[in-house]
């Protein structure tokens, strides 16, 4: 685990209240304004030509190197009241993004320092330092980080780092017409999210739950967390994500012990042969 994650003072450690996203999927209308704003502000390339993906009206289909915000259209079959036995469709929409994990495995495995923790507590890639090794791609528990085929460099959401530096909110949150995407101090967003879930429960929406909000979770809580109206798997999210590098210290200790044993055995054999 990196020293930044352990809370030790390092360059790039948060120096102010941590910022984040709270995405309330119960308010998402699938307009994709956040996708468009993200692409426009960050000058992202266009996606592949429009084609049928088999995923309802979703033409981008997933997060990627050229899509840092992705609005999923999920059609879930549910029993209909009339006629008996018939099925209906329930629409679930959600704007997905990099989670900016508290314990970010991508930071642990990056060999060049291309990934760093900003003063806002977010995780950003410096493309001019990235060597395209792809270690962070396999380390991300959410499958967010992606490489561009042309040169192998990785790209993902920066939470509009350049906008935050001048006191502006991220482009996606600015463009969202329903306040489904909310930006602010993470502690305040968590309180707001708790109140929103309680409100939905009083309305009878017992399925409402928060995802990535818990600081005691497998990645130490997400800097971008969600209010969901169904199981995480329905949205294509892992139900119990963990920091993928959590076992590295133990693995290195075992590897070192094994190497020491081999060296000791070789030394004994060498000196035994000389005698």
Give an overview in words:
- The chain contains seven helices and ten strands.
- The protein has two domains: 19-243, 2-Layer Sandwich (Alpha-Beta Plaits); 245-275.
- Mean pLDDT is 86; it is low at 1-15.
- The longest helix has 27 residues, at 248-274.
- The protein has helices spanning 33-42, 105-109, 135-139, 161-164, 171-175, 186-202, 248-274; strands at residues 19-24, 70-79, 87-96, 115-117, 123-125, 146-147, 154-155, 181-185, 209-211, 224-228.
- The protein has 275 residues and is of the alpha+beta class.
Oligomer: single chain
* SSE pattern, N- to C-terminal: EHEEHEEHEEHHEHEEH
CATH class of the largest domain: Alpha Beta
What fraction of the residues are assigned to beta strands by DSSP?
15-25%
Q: Examine the secondary-structure arrangement and name the CATH architecture of the largest domain.
A: 2-Layer Sandwich
Count structural domains: 2
What's the short version?
The chain has 275 residues and is of the alpha+beta class. It is 27% helix and 18% strand. It is globular, with a radius of gyration of 22 Å.
Secondary structure elements and their pairing?
Blueprint: E1 19-24, H1 33-42, E2 70-79, E3 87-96, H2 105-109, E4 115-117, E5 123-125, H3 135-139, E6 146-147, E7 154-155, H4 161-164, H5 171-175, E8 181-185, H6 186-202, E9 209-211, E10 224-228, H7 248-274
Parallel strand pairs: 1-10
Antiparallel strand pairs: 1-8, 2-3, 4-5, 6-7, 9-10
């Amino acid at each position: 685990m990196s020293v930044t994650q352990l809370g030790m003072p390092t360059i790039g450690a948060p120096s102010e209240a941590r910022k984040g996203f709270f995405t309330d999927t119960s308010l998402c209308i699938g307009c994709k304004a956040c996708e468009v704003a993200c692409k426009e502000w960050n000058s992202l390339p266009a996606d592949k030509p429009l084609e049928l993906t088999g995923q309802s009206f979703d033409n981008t289909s997933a997060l990627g190197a050229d899509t840092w915000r992705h609005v999923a259209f999920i059609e879930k079959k549910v029993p209909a009241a009339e006629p008996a036995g018939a099925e209906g469709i329930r629409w679930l929409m959600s704007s997905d993004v990099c989670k900016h994990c508290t314990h970010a495995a991508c930071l642990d495995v990056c060999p060049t320092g291309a990934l760093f923790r900003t003063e806002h507590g977010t995780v950003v890639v410096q493309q001019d330092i990235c060597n395209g090794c792809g270690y962070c791609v396999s380390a991300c528990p959410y499958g967010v980080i992606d490489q561009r085929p042309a040169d192998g460099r990785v790209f993902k959401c920066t939470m509009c780092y350049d906008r935050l530096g001048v006191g502006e909110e991220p482009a996606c949150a600015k463009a969202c017409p329903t306040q489904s995407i909310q930006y602010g101090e993470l502690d305040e967003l968590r309180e707001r999210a708790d109140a929103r879930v309680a409100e939905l429960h009083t309305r009878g929406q017992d399925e409402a739950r928060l995802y990535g909000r818990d600081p005691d979770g497998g990645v130490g809580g997400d800097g971008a967390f969600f209010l969901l109206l169904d199981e995480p798997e329905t949205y294509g999210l892992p139900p119990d994500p963990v920091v993928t590098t959590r076992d590295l210290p133990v693995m290195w200790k075992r590897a070192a012990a094994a190497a020491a044993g081999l060296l000791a055995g070789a030394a004994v054999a060498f000196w035994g042969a000389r005698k």
